[in-house]
Amino acid sequence: MSYWWGFALAVWYAVVLFVLSLTNFHLSRLDAPTDGGLRAEKSNVTLLIWWRPFGNRDPLPDCAVRYGIQDCTLTTNRSAYTRADAVIIHHRELMRKWSLPGAPRPPRQKWIWMNFESPSHSGSLIGLDGVFNLTMSYRRGSDVFLPYGYLQPRRGERETPQVSAWHRRGFVAWIVSNWNEQHERVRFYRNLRRYVHVDVFGRDARDLISNSVVRTVSRYKFYLAFENSLHTDYITEKLWRNALLSGAVPVVLGPPRKNYELFLPADAFIHVQDFSGPRALAAYLKHLDRNHALYQRYLNWTRHYSVHVTSFWAEHYCMACRAVQASRRQYKSVSDIALWFQS
Ligand SMILES: *[C@@H]1O[C@H](CO)[C@@H](O)[C@H](O)[C@H]1NC(C)=O
Ligand SMILES: *[C@@H]1O[C@H](CO)[C@@H](O)[C@H](O)[C@H]1NC(C)=O
Ligand SMILES: *[C@@H]1O[C@H](CO)[C@@H](O)[C@H](O)[C@H]1NC(C)=O
Ligand SMILES: *[C@@H]1O[C@H](CO)[C@@H](O)[C@H](O)[C@H]1NC(C)=O
């Protein structure tokens, strides 16, 4: 009996010692200075911008001043590569030059795939699988999700909706810089103008008033927010800045209505697919033009929301920096960019 108890005690002791040693091991490992990178939460993030998107030369922003995001160091100096916490790689230049950082990749460094063009204008997405750690785009589900704009709730409600555009002289406006007969939007416009007058501005048409989109469009009741290609979530500044910020009611051509409704109230826009065709759409616009109360409903959202238009590229860099700070401990690589982005 005593022999058996002695044995049981010894086993129990051994187990306790073993568990203690494990705990101890973990504690000492966590405290060990060699692992301090993870532990000591260096909050300063150095973000290396590998290429200036489209050669953009704007000065890099101070994220603390512009967005209240502390401890971000942005640089385009590639000699910071080995100490950079993250590298932003813009898809357009990657596609053209196809050269990724050559030096060995620091193990904790994150590579961010950044792209704000639609799949139709993104070129090859092949060969990117397993290369990047974070995605950044207008597409929902991006690690750093940044739409071209969004509505922000107002602090306190406005008494009346913004700008009744009723006094406006113009009827329908459209700004188009890239005129391409293959684009759905050009085909639609060609049909639409058979039934309704559209003032077209842009490279091959008339000049903007005071060279300003907002000043030009704010003279109109409706704006054709027609995207250059039709893809999930691809809703650009044509909606946010050109139409909504200008106070014109958007007539949208892009992804389906349901997709737009994820971003703004159903009665804040007119979708071309709400109608059997350009003729029916034109009739409806003319109907609204004669019916103030009905038109005004499309501006009802302005009582509760204001428009935020994202700033290329200052806001993008700072949001990326914030995302890197927030995902410090996370290891991940993106395995299916093409499949996901094109879906
Ligand atoms: C981060 O870097 C800035 C500028 O290099 C420095 O002023 C600041 O003290 C640093 N903060 C931390 C927490 O290391
Ligand atoms: C990049 O950084 C290196 C090392 O800090 C420095 O010697 C060099 O002058 C910098 N280059 C530019 C263009 O600022
Ligand atoms: C405007 O919005 C308010 C609240 O969101 C709603 O109660 C009201 O019925 C709307 N008015 C119109 C004309 O749609
Ligand atoms: C980033 O992705 C690479 C390639 O898949 C991977 O080797 C590396 O461990 C990842 N790093 C982080 C910090 O997630």
UniProtKB/TrEMBL annotation:
<keyword id="KW-0395">Inflammatory response</keyword>
<comment type="function">
    <text>Catalyzes alpha(1-&gt;3) linkage of fucosyl moiety transferred from GDP-beta-L-fucose to N-acetyl glucosamine (GlcNAc) within type 2 lactosamine (LacNAc, Gal-beta(1-&gt;4)GlcNAc) glycan attached to N- or O-linked glycoproteins. Robustly fucosylates nonsialylated distal LacNAc unit of the polylactosamine chain to form Lewis X antigen (CD15), a glycan determinant known to mediate important cellular functions in development and immunity.</text>
</comment>
<dbReference type="GO" id="GO:0000139">
    <property type="term" value="C:Golgi membrane"/>
</dbReference>
<keyword id="KW-0808">Transferase</keyword>
<keyword id="KW-0735">Signal-anchor</keyword>
<dbReference type="GO" id="GO:0017083">
    <property type="term" value="F:4-galactosyl-N-acetylglucosaminide 3-alpha-L-fucosyltransferase activity"/>
</dbReference>
<dbReference type="InterPro" id="IPR001503">
    <property type="entry name" value="Glyco_trans_10"/>
</dbReference>
<keyword id="KW-0333">Golgi apparatus</keyword>
<dbReference type="Pfam" id="PF00852">
    <property type="entry name" value="Glyco_transf_10"/>
</dbReference>
<comment type="similarity">
    <text>Belongs to the glycosyltransferase 10 family.</text>
</comment>
<keyword id="KW-0812">Transmembrane</keyword>
<feature type="domain" description="Fucosyltransferase N-terminal">
    <location>
        <begin position="43"/>
        <end position="149"/>
    </location>
</feature>
<keyword id="KW-0325">Glycoprotein</keyword>
<dbReference type="Pfam" id="PF17039">
    <property type="entry name" value="Glyco_tran_10_N"/>
</dbReference>
<comment type="pathway">
    <text>Protein modification; protein glycosylation.</text>
</comment>
<keyword id="KW-1133">Transmembrane helix</keyword>
<dbReference type="InterPro" id="IPR038577">
    <property type="entry name" value="GT10-like_C_sf"/>
</dbReference>
<keyword id="KW-0328">Glycosyltransferase</keyword>
<feature type="domain" description="Fucosyltransferase C-terminal">
    <location>
        <begin position="168"/>
        <end position="340"/>
    </location>
</feature>
<protein>
    <recommendedName>
        <fullName>Fucosyltransferase</fullName>
        <ecNumber>2.4.1.-</ecNumber>
    </recommendedName>
</protein>
<dbReference type="GO" id="GO:0032580">
    <property type="term" value="C:Golgi cisterna membrane"/>
</dbReference>
<dbReference type="InterPro" id="IPR055270">
    <property type="entry name" value="Glyco_tran_10_C"/>
</dbReference>
<dbReference type="InterPro" id="IPR031481">
    <property type="entry name" value="Glyco_tran_10_N"/>
</dbReference>
<dbReference type="GO" id="GO:0006954">
    <property type="term" value="P:inflammatory response"/>
</dbReference>
<keyword id="KW-0472">Membrane</keyword>
<feature type="transmembrane region" description="Helical">
    <location>
        <begin position="6"/>
        <end position="25"/>
    </location>
</feature>
